[in-house]
């Protein structure tokens, strides 16, 4: 199906990022670097109560602080607060300190509600305080059934039951959410840290009742999004309103503290799984009940969708008899948002843990159990290839049989990502100048994955030029509209679009110049014949150059100190497919990043909330723990290039199986399972039975 | 943060005068700036003490070494002589925070740092340590908290240096009321044992000048267990120091951090170990003694086996290669 060239000079090879020099020298302007003429700092006052009714907000004293140019409230009238950190008011001023001083003198009259709940299990109880008055926190679960689990379980030779749980993971990209907004009579310009300039424009236009044509969103460079940054956000709207009132640009970038509260997270999951197989290892029955919290509600500002707590079960494996119950539990906490492969990392962790537990019960090698039950041919290939590279057969030992205090173990897990295809309405244009220079303009943005480089690689390949000869401009809604960078769709959206633009450009250039083939060495001669008028070519995404559904499997090797509980990830082999590889280097980089994010999910990350005060206790990198370099193992990326499938995205599947693989490796090492993420030393020691029971005084 | 005056002191006495009643000393600033930014302490005046003469020196003599309070953690980590004479101190220094922080963090600041309890550090919880009514951690999220405390606050002392200096039986020399006062590590923190408001025994205006470490114990070791491999606080830390003669311990001392508001030391265990052959059995018995009165809370009982393992390992490490 694929019309991509088979003999390539750049596609499928490694090209360094064309913007690497700009990034390394600090020339690249990130959203948080923007310093518009006369700009002010913006800052948000947040609720210090998890539940309250705001009766009035008096901004007079804030306005009197020297340097303060604007002060606004989020709501005009009374406001109901449903989580700690909810936005109440905002100020703009000439210095950070002026804003901080102003926030401290804003007078808020509130009826503080002492009834609130931040814990999923408490929230599910019948007498729990209600997050939304008159609505149960946990509605009746929805049930999906196939076959009959009741008759199937007795037919199984082995049945396991487990309770696997994953925590709320906070969105913590390197650059926090935020924007610089400038709202003048001509319209609104927002330099947003976003993964969707179009969706931010639509959101701002909608919230502020502006014509779309009067809103321009610019994102030259941004420091990561992962699903949190599709919408304008409360902060984006507040920045615009502050700018209007102050008659000056306002930069409102959130602090790391803010980031922990109100701009999205991955929902928790509590997965009670019962699963059985026949004696030959075929899965036969699967029954699960899962609940999790998306905070006060899923997708308050989803944009990219997928903020709910439901997860795909039984994930990769077809089971003839299933019963799956799922429910979302509301708590007084910031709402969830799409988070790199929504639903999949927790699903992979739960199901792949259950698979290994079942393998133990069946006395089977867990890899064999997967090969037996996973119908996906590509993953079958990946398991076999990965096992070879990893040395699975040589390394595998029975769970807990590793000798000594520090034990080693191995595990594996699989991933699926059903999306990852192209966005049909992607458009772009190229301007070919008589001097032979060429500029591509696409209304897409680079979320950090190397979007400019992908455009340059495809264009260079198609035109017979070098990537560095291609000028790429992205991140501006004045350009033809492009996709949001989410769902692993960017590469399969823009690659066919650039292909289309190049094909049209060559056709026109060749016709105008009267040259049969304008590519490569003929390029400059052909362009010269344009005379004085540049050639501008508009193109769009075209069929047949991309597809979707990437898989992937990962293998993990760990060491576990059974006295200190410290888990050391030694090696990860990540085997992935994403159709036709465009740029191997940026692809490997995405997989490295996915593995490291998965490592954080496996071993370190967890939002901790306090039942009594309702606050997030770890709104910083001191106690919200992220992997550092010393924690990161050797990562070996193994790629399956499948040009016949066209281009598929890789962003999400790369992070899906890591936690499951590490959890299985830990269980293999110590012979017992830590059923809840993150796998901390405390949980390792508890699983080993070393922790004395807690006795209430 | 609140507005403050800034002054640079050129002598310890003038520093003391400048800091007056509501000032704060500024050296590396790692702890102080965080406290100021979160409005956890308010200081009218910051007194820069980085120019105080003589406090940035490591001085060696036969019977004891002195390390000035302005010596950075990186200096300790990088000092080849310290690595030989007080290996435990080198190990403790090298585990502290990150290289960037170690480059500017000082001995004095490390010893005088305030609680890291996440309730204390949170801007919107008014806990016992901030003059509130209750210790949230006791019934709440106490995974990082103490197994021992003499008062209702269970936030632990987390200074790795203090833990090691306790095992080395070192003293801090503190300028108090114009006079030099010597405090061993127990004395330096004792007030935090009994008073929830206290982080240590220092009075306002007290200035740590230096620490003095006796060379009596040629063997020392420091170990910490954390969630992560680097740049993370200890869940539990343990230091041990002794002289080892013919395989027997002399003047052994063991101290633990992150499990008590003070460096946790049990003199009976030190006495028990004195003269013992250093082996697994003795180390295990000592660990039992050191932890026998531990009072875990709902989420920190794991610290008991963890501390037990670290005590054994730290003691056995004193054997060295010999």
Brief digest:
Chain A has 697 residues and is of the alpha+beta class. Chain A has 18 helices and 25 strands.
Task: Describe the 3D structure.
The complex is a heterodimer of chains A (697) and B (322). By secondary structure, chain A is of the alpha+beta class. Chain A is built from 18 helices and 25 strands. Residues 299-305 of chain A have low confidence and may be disordered. Chain B is built from 13 helices and eleven strands. In chain B, strands 4-5-8-6-7 form a five-stranded antiparallel sheet. In chain B, strands 1-3-2 form a three-stranded parallel sheet, covered by helices on one side. In chain B, strands 9-10-11 form a three-stranded antiparallel sheet, sandwiched between helices. Chain B is globular and about 60 Å long. The model of chain B has no long low-confidence stretch (mean pLDDT 97). The interface between A and B is large, with 38 and 37 residues.
Keywords:
heterodimer, A: 697 residues, alpha+beta, Aldehyde Oxidoreductase, domain 4, 3 domains, seven-stranded mixed β-sheet, five-stranded mixed β-sheet, 18 helices, 27% helix, globular, B: 322 residues, Uridine Diphospho-n-acetylenolpyruvylglucosamine Reductase, domain 2, Enolase-like, domain 1, five-stranded antiparallel β-sheet, three-stranded parallel β-sheet
